[in-house]
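[retry 2/3] histidine kinase: previous attempt timed out, resubmitting with same input.
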Amino acid sequence: MKRNLTWHRKDYREDRFRDGLILALVHSGVCVCAQAESGEYLFVANMHKPWHFDQDTDPVDTEIFGEDLGQKLKLAKSRVMESRETEEFEVHLPDSGFYQIIIDFVASPYGAPLILTMIKDISEERHREQVLKNLLRELSHRSKNLLAIVLSLASQTARGHSDLGGFLKIFRGRIFSLSASQDLVTDMSWSGAGFHDLVENQVKKYFPEDDSRIKVKGADPVLTPNAATHVGLALHELIVNLASRDAQNEGAVSAVIDCWVLPNEAGIDETHITWRESADSGAVQPEFTNVFSEPMLQRIIPTSVSGSAEIEVDGGTVSYSLVFPSAENRHS
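[retry 2/3] histidine kinase: success.
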């Protein structure tokens, strides 16, 4: 069944709005080629840059598109002429991008039928699809890592608590730490988290009205998602121990956190994080009574970021240092 694809006033010549239609094609990014049943080119508009032809001679498929694609187009157009069915496929040019090609049969009520070839640059669409696939793969990877960390936290926490109430209290705090760090990572499109933001997020849960009790200074590097997650857990353990000791000493305990980045002897940048906790004279002496805190701080955290750590308790002072290669974590 023949159908009109356009309409215009009978007293208005088609060539008067031809340039306007061509401009619309240019803005749409679509190239249109019209050919007679014989294959003779009748019209070409908005040809894409990868292809070109001498406008002083009649164009030919193989001359415009090259031998391989030209032959593929000729065969596809022959099938469309016979079947009257639309054909569609994509072409990938390594140096130019992706193109969608649609070949259609038009039974014009004004004359002989035409073969229309429409070519659209879909490189941006394919790029967005690839970005989305990469993001989904990254999300899957991060989710599996987080689940593994949660499982490890549950197992380790359970070892130090024989009652459910005690386990839930400690476990929920550690899950909050993971969640707070993950929020920062997500806010930065999974590129990492700023160190100072990480400290602030962990501190405000236990000292919401007095953030001066724990001061942070020094550099503010962006830690990768892996480093942010595990440094956040280390800060959580230190802050919980400080809060417990602080409650026993009526606000006499404080801490300073410092951070800097320096190259090591091999020229590799390393992130150094130190925690120094002190208390007024006469305060209850510090001790890590939680069976999970010391292994977490001295073994699990540094191993997870390919670094090293030390804890030192001297009188009323608790010192903790964590060092890890910045370059290694950039790829985590």
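[retry 2/3] histidine kinase: Residues 207 and 320 are 20 Å apart (CA to CA).
[retry 2/3] clearing retry counter.
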